[in-house]
Amino acid sequence: MEISNLFTAGGIVMWPLLAFSLLGVALIIERIIFWVRINNRQNKVVREVLQLYRLDNVVSALDKLQKNADLPIARIFLAALELEEPTPEEFRLALESEAQAEIPLLKRSQNIFETIIGLAPLLGLLGTVLGLINSFASLNIGDVGGTKTTGVTSGISEALVSTASGLVVAIFTLLFANTFRGLYQRQIAWIQEYGGQLELLYRRRYEKGDNNLKFKINPI
Questions:
Q1: The whole model's pTM is what?
Q2: Which of 52, 79, 89, 192 fits a disulfide with 57 by CB distance 3.0 to 4.6 angstroms?
Q3: TM spans, by residue (predicted)?
């Protein structure tokens, strides 16, 4: 069936389904580019930053983060490391606050995906119902078995096109939405893991500084 015939058979609901499919494809492409960019660089950058921080090379660690500030986890680290002599509690709060601020970026378009997944099958069903209404409206009860009955049968098969189209749009969107949801959950786990490592390093550094200060004030 040609595209033009497909739209004719599916009825008016094919147009919002087309809009949903185009919107879904555009958002899927944007999310793919976003996640590929993050996953290709993030682990390497974070490991280098943590290694520099372990070696007390804070300036180089900050420089590395600033050069990769387009990564969410780099912005999270910067929010804490750029504080002036914070306590461990303040350092942890800075990490957690920035991590919360990054969540909408990581979950971007998820609500739109869920809307498309929910509405596309309903629109397809609506198209089928409207097609059936039109088909049976043209049926003449006294002409059972005649040419009009054949037209009704043909109309029913055509009306099902909208349901099939709605299911295709929903299934396609659902596949990628679940993939992006999995990437988001894994990203949150990484942020917690790497953030915990940075917090532990800072806490050790902070306690070491306190101990050195006490030693200078009260030498044994």
A1: 0.81
A2: 52
A3: 12-34, 116-139, 159-177
